[in-house]
Amino acid sequence: MRPVEWFVRAVRPGETHHGRADYRAESVVVSPMCGRSRFVALNRSPIHECYYDDQRCPDCLRLLASPALTLVRAS
Ligand SMILES: [Zn+2]
Fold first, then answer.
1. By C-alpha distance, which of 70, 68, 3, 61 is closest to 32?
2. CA of 38 to the centre of ligand 1 (A)
3. How far is ligand 1, taken at its centre, from the CA of residue 70, in Å?
4. What φ, ψ does residue 44 adopt, rounded to 5°?
5. What is the reported pTM?
6. Domain span at 47
7. Are 16 and 7 in contact (CB under 8 A)?
């Protein structure tokens, strides 16, 4: 299984999201899995292991833990 890719919206607790990344020439635009609005990520390379426990978006984490969405993600 591939590691979960995280993208930073802001350097605040809960502002690192998982979602679909659209790689553009100058930026990475992320559509978060949790349904929040798209954003330009601060990091170009995805983070696989977050530095702080409270860094990750709790809604994205909850969705990643759902077996149904894991199947969707794998396809
Ligand atoms: Zn999120």
1. 61
2. 10
3. 15
4. -85, -40
5. 0.83
6. 7-74
7. yes
Total domains, the chain? 1
Q: Is residue 1 part of a domain?
A: no
> Is pLDDT above 80 for 68?
no
Show the 3-state SS of 1-62. CCCCCEEECCCCCCCEECEEEEECCCCEEEEECCCCCCEECCCCCCECCCCCHHHECHHHHH
CA of 54 to the centre of ligand 1 (A): 12
Cβ atoms < 10 Å from Cβ of 62: 12
Mean pLDDT of 61-71: 75
- 69 domain-assigned: yes
